[in-house]
Amino acid sequence: MGFRQDHLLGIEPLAPDEIREILDLADDYVALSRSADKHADALRGLTQINMFFENSTRTQASFELAGKRLGADVMNMAVAASSVKKGETLIDTAMTLNAMQPDLLVVRHPHSGAVDLLAQKVNCAVLNAGDGRHEHPTQALLDALTIRRKKGRLHRLSVAICGDIAHSRVARSNLILLGKMENRVKLIGPPTLMPSGIAELGCEVYENMAEGLKDVDVVMMLRLQKERMDGGFIPSEREYYHLYGLDAEKLAHAAPDAIVMHPGPMNRGVEIDGTLADDINRSVIQEQVEMGVAVRMAAMDLLARNLRARRQAA
């Protein structure tokens, strides 16, 4: 059927074959990024605007690099210095940007649904770089690519997602994607950081790390989202690390060849032991960063193809 989306707003709208198409193309872009000449022309003649209303290092840098490697004209909008700070609404900002005739708009916003609203107001392809607690689709896709390349498949695996589930858009997107690809998903964390009704999404919920990690193939740790917490969700960071921080002792409950993941930025000694995070035999955290560029190249390439097709048909 092929990739049929006009925007990439979340994992939820994607069919399994569309997920596979993004990952297959991303594999090609991994090879390109490792070659001497890292440039292609899939986005030549197109303009990409990156608009980040929240701070970002990995996501913004990889979207910028992805666009430039594909030949786009890339602009990073400094939201802190923009008219948004003067009271301009998101819709007015969208209309202003739309008048500049962009082709690809990459948006990160602190409010869930804001990126979807913006996509309704512009004539270009919009990519969600994270909206509130809702979704972070390219993170889930790069995690999926990392898992598939390490494990040789992306189905019938046992995956544990551990930590601050309640505030994590990464957890939500990964849960949806892994479910679509027929994996067993376990969520592990304290009750205060577990959303109510989460088990209805087809996952298993554990409060104890040893029980939840038993025989899993993939251990995905999450950052404590302190900026989204407005109360005492954990007694202390020291207590949290003792119960839920990943170390060699807890990892021993997983499968012997289990891989360790983290979307970053990491709080070493809080969510994960620093030595384990750097263990090249178990940790794939640096591979996740590399896969991020390739996945974002693939997503923008496929969206640009559909955008060109729509414009030609109009």
TrEMBL record:
GO-annotated molecular function: amino acid binding; aspartate carbamoyltransferase activity
Annotated binding of carbamoyl phosphate, by residue: R58, T59, R108, H136, Q139, G264, P265
Coiled coil: none
EC number from the UniProt entry: 2.1.3.2
Ranges for domain Aspartate/ornithine carbamoyltransferase carbamoyl-P binding: 7-148
Keyword set includes Disulfide bond: no
GO annotation, biological process: 'de novo' pyrimidine nucleobase biosynthetic process; 'de novo' UMP biosynthetic process; amino acid metabolic process
Aspartate/ornithine carbamoyltransferase Asp/Orn-binding domain: residues covered: 157-302
GO cellular component, one term: cytosol
Catalytic reaction(s) noted: carbamoyl phosphate + L-aspartate = N-carbamoyl-L-aspartate + phosphate + H(+)
Origin superkingdom: Bacteria
Class of the enzyme per the UniProt entry, highest EC level: transferase
InterPro entries: Asp/Orn_carbamoyltranf_P-bd, Asp/Orn_carbamoylTrfase, Asp/Orn_carbamoylTrfase_sf, Asp_carbamoyltransf, Asp_carbamoyltransf_Asp/Orn-bd
Protein residues bound to L-aspartate: K86, R169, R223
A Pfam family that the UniProt record links to this protein: OTCace_N
Keywords: Pyrimidine biosynthesis, Transferase
Pathway: Pyrimidine metabolism; UMP biosynthesis via de novo pathway; (S)-dihydroorotate from bicarbonate: step 2/3
The family this protein is said to belong to: Belongs to the aspartate/ornithine carbamoyltransferase superfamily. ATCase family.
Described function: Catalyzes the condensation of carbamoyl phosphate and aspartate to form carbamoyl aspartate and inorganic phosphate, the committed step in the de novo pyrimidine nucleotide biosynthesis pathway. Reversibly catalyzes the transfer of the carbamoyl group from carbamoyl phosphate (CP) to the N(epsilon) atom of ornithine (ORN) to produce L-citrulline.
Oligomeric and partner information: Heterododecamer (2C3:3R2) of six catalytic PyrB chains organized as two trimers (C3), and six regulatory PyrI chains organized as three dimers (R2).
PANTHER family: ASPARTATE CARBAMOYLTRANSFERASE (PTHR45753:SF6), ORNITHINE CARBAMOYLTRANSFERASE, MITOCHONDRIAL (PTHR45753)
Protein name: Aspartate carbamoyltransferase
Organism: Primorskyibacter flagellatus
